[in-house]
Design goal:
Elements (H helix, E strand, L loop, with lengths): L10 H8 L1 H25 L4 H27 L11 H7 L8 H29 L3 H28 L3 H20 L10
Helix pairs in contact: 1-5, 2-3, 5-6, 5-7
Length: 194
């Protein structure tokens, strides 16, 4: 369903289980960044009313998720700690060339956001299936559904606002291929995307 070309090595879930504090901290920052991305899209592309409406709802939802993850941290006696660079996202953003029309830049941002949501959804599924902590497993199962909806929303908007659906779909496939290469070097760290 997600279209990912390289699934996460299932051993990543073992790394996550053994480092659940780091996973929760990283996850909290991922939710903040997702909300920030939604707000950035509103600020940068205010003329796309349908997008603004959807991103307003998304920012609210992502901050709700942040609150939930932060509460999980506090329940376990953990603190947020400092944000870490997300190597995965940094590498994804290198894929598309800088410049181009506003519409092209928007499509690129939407495709990257969609792929981040798809990978997050896949990681949440692994956590929901493999964590021994049943409360956290259920927590990630519930979040997995939201992430899948976000992925499809971003892809839908990219196809809608792109000038040519075939070009957008080709870019999506090329981005998926590139992401599979990135993932060959990731999946062994205690972070949501790492």
């Amino acid at each position: 369903m997600l279209g990912l070309k390289l699934p996460t090595d299932p051993r990543w879930a073992d790394i996550a289980e053994k480092n659940i504090e780091e996973i929760l901290i990283d996850h909290a920052y991922c939710e903040q960044k997702a909300a920030s991305t939604a707000i950035s899209l509103i600020v940068t592309y205010p003329e796309y009313s349908e997008l603004v409406t959807a991103m307003t709802a998304l920012a609210r939802e992502e901050m709700g998720h942040f609150k939930m993850v932060h509460e999980k941290l506090l329940e376990r006696g953990f603190k947020m700690g400092w944000d870490r660079k997300d190597e995965y996202v940094i590498k994804l953003r290198e894929f598309f060339p800088k410049g181009g029309s506003r519409a092209t830049q928007l499509v690129h941002r939407l495709l990257i956001a969609g792929l981040i949501e798809a990978r997050s959804c896949e990681r949440f599924r692994l956590l929901s299936e493999q964590l021994e902590d049943q409360e956290l497993a259920k927590f990630y199962r519930d979040l997995m559904v939201s992430e899948a909806n976000h992925y499809t929303m971003f892809l839908k908007f990219a196809r809608k606002f792109g000038e040519d659906r075939k070009v957008v779909d080709q870019k999506w496939q090329e981005l998926l291929d590139y992401e599979a290469e990135i993932m060959k070097d990731l999946g062994n760290k205690e972070s949501i995307h790492g």
